[in-house]
Structure formats: structure tokens, C-alpha cells
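ingest -> validate -> predict -> emit
validate: passed (alphabet ok, no gaps, 218 aa)
predict: started
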Amino acid sequence: MSTPTQNMTSKNTPAFSDPANTWNQRFAAPGFLFGAEPNGWLREHAHVWSPGEQVLCVADGEGRNSVWLAEQGLKVDAFDIAATGVAKARELAAQRGVTVNFAVADCDAYAWPDAALDGVAAIFVQFADPDLRARLFTNMVRSLKPGGWLVLQGYTPRQLDYRTGGPPLVSHLYTESLLREAFSELDIDTLREYEAELAEGSGHHGRSALIGMVARRP
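emit:
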């Protein structure tokens, strides 16, 4: 999901100078901005993990993905910059009778483990400008143990034509070549650009230009 952690900048847009406050306000609205059900790509590919394994959900917002993974029997950590989103996530976990280790943190401040996780779920983490994205992707890879799996989804530049979710900045969007280069240390099992109708709350709704990746640390 899209949750900013640092300034979102572009030559054509003003600096996103207070991301925590911005997303706290967005998540303070009634309901779930991106819905309460898991992302479809994550649901389709979560079989790479087995019950009891440790998975981290990056920038998890209101908890739709982390709570669902916990319902599948996984041990789940999750973080987000927005305290209001994390509060909703904790409520959702309690309602569904599962435990998730939630934290309020941005991507740079989060206590990333070293080679300790069986999985990382990174779903629409496209708040990141290229510099932040490089640090974020490095930390995601570093946190995986050998044999650990990354499941990632994002928007491609064609999403700028649809405008049904995601940042309006081409520098924040993904291509196959960008992901192959960024995750060259991983063995990529699946990497696919496609289009689909999303119905993930009001935040991701309508025809969308998507890219999904599933990759394993050797």
C-alpha cells in the first residue's frame, strides 16, 4: 500500500514535507482507505510461505495485508509511519482474533533485521523517491534469510493514464528493468506487468496498470 516515509519530491510537484501528518489525516477518515481485504497479488502468491514462518509487511497502513497473513498462520511483523493507520490495524487484528507485531516507524528508522525473515511483503510502497527506494529495497533484501521470499506489487508508468491510485510521479513507478536491477541479488520466480480492475477501498479503485514480482534470496 502507499504510505510515505520521507519527502516526496519532483521538479513538477512541491515537497511532501509532512508525510506522517498527511497519512494520519487520511487514515483518520471512517472506514479503510484501501479496504480491509488483502491485496490480490499477495493473496495469490502467499503460498510461498508456510504457517509459522516470519513475514514482515512494509508500510502496512491499516493492516489489511498483515492481518490476513496472520490469519494464514504466519508470524507477522508490520510497520507504518502513520499512528492512526497502525491503530486501525491493531483494531482489525483484535476483531479477527490474530496477533501481529505492529510498530509505528518510517522506512529508514525501522529496526530492520539481518537475514532473519522468511518473507517480506511490499505492496504499493511507491511513496519512495528513487533515493529512498534504493535504501528501502536494500533493507528488504538484507532482512531476508537465505531461502526467504519477497512478494511485491506496484504500479507501472502507464498508471499515469488511469489515475486510479498511486503517486502521480513517474519516478516512483516500477518497470521490469528497474525491478530486475534493484533485486539482482534475488532469484526472480515471477515478474509480470499486467492490467486489472482493482477494488481496494477508495484508494485503489478502477482499471490499473500493475506489476508483480515474487523473488527468493539464494
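The beta strands are 54-57, 75-80, 101-104, 117-123, 144-155, 187-200, 204-216.
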